[in-house]
Specification:
The protein folds into 2 domains: about 150 residues, Lysozyme, CATH 1.10.530; about 50 residues, no CATH class. It starts with 10 loop residues before the first helix and ends in a 28-residue tail after the last helix. The longest helix has 17 residues. Helix 5 runs antiparallel to helix 6. About 35% of the residues lie in helices and about 0% in strands.
């Protein structure tokens, strides 16, 4: 089951749970149960109807809410003008249950310390399936895989390899204190020739950039003129018509681009 499951469909749910303050092992346990309950097609399905209900209309949605709890979900969606089949609607109803009628199940969940025990606790106290359909081992297998992928940040499709960063795609170093790009932490051999990183003064990384090879030495300037690139030869030039010409920023002195979205 684990190999055939679309874990990309779990990522939004897992992230929702983490943002709600659940520990990773508890988020994975909940997501693993929901994946088992609503995943007969190999992915989490928030609009899935129980295929062969043994009584009444059967279960519906990610948790396969059944009986009075299904009615509660439907009434909640109707009263709040929310689409029944969407994740956010069901997560809001999930929040309503965990602070109300199902609070005891979450109190028990919080006392567990690993994925397997958390998965079992959530199944027994929140899902409460029939013994014939419980299949705890399958739920634990899903939950453990979700936990592992959550720790790696890898919810790719089955068979895909996690994205590997090339050497030049490594995360950029922290921002310089002056806001002009990133504090260089790369080894000298990792910095391409001509890069502005080669011009950062190792003795004063947050200070003015060093001149390029063959460029006129930069004059000392006031704090408010930092980074404007006034050549030494023009530092003593008398004003024209009582005003200095606006200094031009060198292209190499422009701020570095922001960090990549992935960090």
């Amino acid at each position: 089951m684990t190999r055939k499951f679309d874990y990309a469909s779990v990522a939004p749910l897992y992230n929702d749970l983490i943002q709600r303050g659940f520990a990773p092992q508890h988020a994975a346990a909940i997501a693993g149960n929901f994946a088992y309950e609503s995943g007969p097609k190999g992915r989490i399905d928030y609009g899935v109807q129980e295929l062969k209900p043994t009584a009444g209309r059967g279960g519906y949605g990610a948790a396969q809410w059944t009986g009075p709890r299904r009615v509660g979900l439907e009434q909640f969606a109707k009263q709040n003008h929310l689409p029944l089949h969407e994740r956010e609607t069901q997560m809001k109803y999930f929040d309503k249950e965990r602070t109300g009628s199902e609070r005891a199940a979450f109190d028990r969940l919080q006392k567990t310390g690993d994925v397997n025990s958390a998965t079992k606790s959530f199944m027994q106290n929140y899902e409460r399936p029939r013994a014939s359909t419980a299949n705890l081992a399958a739920r634990q297998q899903l939950a453990q895989e979700i936990y592992n992928r959550g720790q790696r940040g890898d919810f790719n499709q089955p068979g895909q390899q996690p994205t590997q960063l090339a050497k030049n795609d490594a995360p950029l170093p922290p921002q310089r204190p002056d806001g002009l790009g990133q504090q260089p932490q790369l080894a000298k051999n990792d910095i391409p020739p001509g890069s502005v990183l080669n011009r950062i003064n190792p003795k004063d990384p947050s200070g003015p950039l060093l001149p390029e090879a063959g460029q006129t030495q930069m004059a000392d300037v006031g704090k408010n003129d930092f980074g404007r690139g006034i050549p030494a030869s023009s530092a003593q030039t008398p004003p024209l018509n009582g005003q200095l010409e606006a200094p031009q920023t060198l292209m190499a002195d422009a701020p570095l681009p922001p960090s990549r979205p992935e960090g």
